[in-house]
Design brief:
By secondary structure, the chain is an alpha/beta fold. It has helices at residues 21-26, 80-89, 105-112, 124-135, 156-167, 201-216, 241-251, 268-271, 274-284; strands at 57-58, 95-98, 116-121, 145-149, 173-178, 219-229, 232-234, 237-239, 254-263, 291-299. The protein contains nine helices and ten strands. The strands form two sheets. It has an eight-stranded mixed β-sheet, with helices on both faces. The structure holds S-adenosylmethionine.
Length: 300
C-alpha cells in the first residue's frame, strides 16, 4: 500500500502509531529531506501555510479586486484561482502559460508572484486590454511577459509558445492554465476560431483537445495542466462539459491529481434572473448550477 504523502517527510515514523499530527512533530531522528521540486512552499513550516488551500471545495466569498483585477471582463475567473494554483505548482522564475488569456488574470498573478507569463488570446482587442492591465502593474520581480494574439487550437500556437520561451531564456514551461469558453454559454465573438462558436459539443471537445496538445507540448514532464470549466444545459439536459474536457486530457499523457469544485454564487450571468431560474428548476426537474470545476493534471 502507498504511504500517505505526508509520511514521506517523516520516513522514520511508524505509520501504525500515528494518531495525530503531534506524533509527527515528536519524531526526533534527523533525516535527509528531498528538496521541494514543485513549489517554493516551506514544508518545514507547513503549519504557517494557512493561505494555501488544500481542500477540494473552494468557497470564495469575494473576488480579489486589487490593482489591475478590475473584474470588467465578462467571463473572467477570480484571481484567487490562478494565485492558489501558481503558488502550489510553480517556483519563482518558472513559466506559466495561459491558452485563453482573456483579461489577463493569470498573467497579473504570475507577474505578482515572480513567474514569467505567456498568454494566448484569439481576439486582438481583448489581448490589447489584457496588455494594458498586465503592464499597468509594477513588474517588481522583473519577469518576462508575452501576450500572443493567436488561435490556441491552431498548430502554429506551438511554435509561438516556443519562440516566447526562447525569449524568456527557457526551454520549457512549468504550468499550463486553460480557462476556455464553456462552449456557447457566453459567445466571446463571431470569429469562427473562437471555441464559443464551435457548432457542437463534440467539436468543442475536439478543438479543446488540440489546444491541450499545442499548449502543453513544451510543458515539462511532471508539471501541471490546470483546466477551469463549468457545465451547461441544452435541450433540458445537463451537459457535463467539465468531465468531457477532463477526458480529453486523460486521453493524453496526464494523470488526474485532483478535481476541485468551486462555488459560483456570484455569477453575473444569472444574478438578475435568479427567480426565473428557480422556477425553471422546480418546473424542469433540475438543479441550478452553483459550481464549476478545476481539474488538476500532471504530465507523465
Ligand atoms: C473564459 S475566457 C478566459 C478569461 C480569463 N481567464 C480571464 O480571467 O479574463 C475565454 C477566452 O478565450 C478566448 N478564446 C476563445 N477561443 C479561443 C481560441 N481558439 N484561441 C485563443 N483564445 C480563445 C476568448 O476570446 C476569451 O477571452
Amino acid at each position: 500500500m502507498n504511504k500517505p504523502a505526508v509520511l514521506h517527510l517523516f520516513p522514520q515514523v511508524d505509520i501504525t502509531k500515528i494518531k495525530s499530527t503531534k506524533d509527527l512533530e515528536c519524531s526526533s531522528k534527523p533525516h535527509k529531506r528531498k528538496p521541494n521540486q514543485i513549489n517554493d512552499l516551506d514544508l518545514e513550516n507547513w503549519k504557517s501555510l494557512d493561505h494555501i488551500w488544500t481542500d477540494s471545495l473552494w468557497l470564495i466569498p469575494q473576488r480579489d479586486n486589487s490593482g489591475s483585477h478590475t473584474g470588467e471582463y465578462h467571463g473572467n475567473f477570480v484571481p484567487q484561482i490562478p494565485r492558489q494554483i501558481i503558488q502550489r505548482y510553480t517556483k519563482k522564475g518558472d513559466v506559466v502559460v495561459d491558452g485563453f488569456l482573456g483579461s489577463g488574470t493569470t498573467l497579473i498573478e504570475s507577474q505578482r508572484l515572480g513567474r514569467h507569463g505567456i498568454g494566448i488570446e484569439l481576439l486582438p482587442g481583448v489581448a490589447e486590454r489584457a496588455k494594458q492591465l498586465i503592464y499597468g502593474e509594477c513588474n517588481e520581480h522583473n519577469v518576462y511577459n508575452e501576450i500572443i494574439v493567436a488561435n490556441s487550437a491552431d498548430v502554429g500556437a506551438k511554435g509561438k509558445i516556443h519562440n516566447a520561451l526562447k525569449k524568456a531564456g527557457k526551454e520549457n514551461s512549468n504550468l499550463v492554465i486553460l480557462h476556455p469558453p464553456y462552449h456557447d454559454i457566453i459567445r466571446f465573438s463571431d470569429n469562427p476560431n473562437d471555441l464559443s462558436n464551435t457548432c457542437s459539443v463534440e467539436d468543442f471537445c475536439n478543438s479543446f483537445g488540440t489546444v491541450i496538445d499545442n499548449t502543453t507540448f513544451h510543458l515539462q514532464k511532471d508539471k501541471y495542466l490546470v483546466i477551469v470549466i463549468g457545465d451547461k444545459y441544452s435541450n433540458s439536459e445537463w451537459i457535463p462539459l467539465g468531465f468531457y474536457v477532463m477526458q480529453e486530457a486523460l486521453k493524453r499523457d496526464f494523470k488526474l491529481k485532483s478535481i476541485v469544485v468551486k462555488d459560483m454564487q456570484g455569477n453575473r450571468a444569472k444574478q438578475n434572473q435568479q427567480q426565473l431560474w428557480r422556477y425553471r428548476a422546480l418546473n424542469g426537474g433540475f438543479y441550478i448550477f452553483k459550481h464549476e470545476y478545476i481539474f488538476i493534471l500532471k504530465k507523465q
